[in-house]
Amino acid sequence: MTADGKSDLLIVTKAKELCSYIIAVTQKSPKQFRFTFVSRLQNLALDVIEKIYFANEIYIGKGGEKNVEKRLTLQHHALTALKIIAYIAELAMTEKCILFKQYEQIAKLTTDCQRLLGAWINSDKKRLSS
Fold it and tell me: Which of 1, 5, 62, 130 is 20 to 30 A from 19 (CA-CA)?
């Protein structure tokens, strides 16, 4: 739910879940990884939410065709950040910054977010082509 009582897009809810999980897990990571894996994972997770919110605020309905490129760019930036999160999480697991089960959960959440984001992008493209 947002502050104004409206419910979030499912992608927003999942991205928030991913971000919360990453922050909780990395708080317990060894201090030696604080400025490498921990800060990168946390910042990228926050970036994903930011890009999704910015993209959702761009109107692309009737008469909003000129905004399509801006929205798609933000959506694709969020998608790329999710791929980077998955890679850094794998590397963090390999280097013993996070546990294997934590990596698995991050991988699952990033995959869910990528799938939902891809569906949103496809939905926007279909809506515009009709």
Answer: 5
